[in-house]
User: Fold MD-2-related lipid-recognition domain-containing protein from Strigamia maritima.
Amino acid sequence: MLTNKIYVVFLVFTVCEANFGHGEQSVSFSWDNCGTGEQALIKELTLSPTPLIIPGNVTIDFVGESAIDAVSPLKTQLTMKRKLGFFWIDIPCVDDLGSCNYDDGCTLLEKYFPVKDPCPPVFLDNNIPCHCPFPKGEYKIPSYTVDIPSDPLPSWLSDGQYKIRIEISPNYACVDLSLTLGSSNPSVNLIV
Assistant:
């Protein structure tokens, strides 16, 4: 009798997951400023296509504003979660990817954009610095397309739904992102 109840619960869970768990992927991208009193806010942000297909091209439209100069140190906390079934699982920090804490976001930027090198064209073309300090003002990136190869991404970062929170303190910025990743390479897919 108990075994039958377990089977029924399992069947209901499986049907709900098949009908609802993956159905939520239609909400492929959303964002929201979080917290109160932040000095920097995102005004507009779109990513396309949705879901984001990796590898592939992603087009970004962005408008943000900072009420103050952003100077080092910018303590940054990144929280990433992936949906597995009905649950959101924290993604640990591995090689500076996942749920990581950084003592200074400015130092992290220098790792990817060394001060001795010129900023990438998307920054230069839109008069946006790629190193600290970031002067107060409005920043815009209109319809910029970037190619995302599969090589630099770990295999576990594939098809699925993700929630990301980026907090930069003290009270500088906070943003919540929800997105769905897809893959153009079926062998990369993970079962969710």
The first strand starts at residue 29 and ends at 33. Residues 1-26, 186-192 have pLDDT under 50 and may be disordered. The chain has one domain: 1-18+29-183.
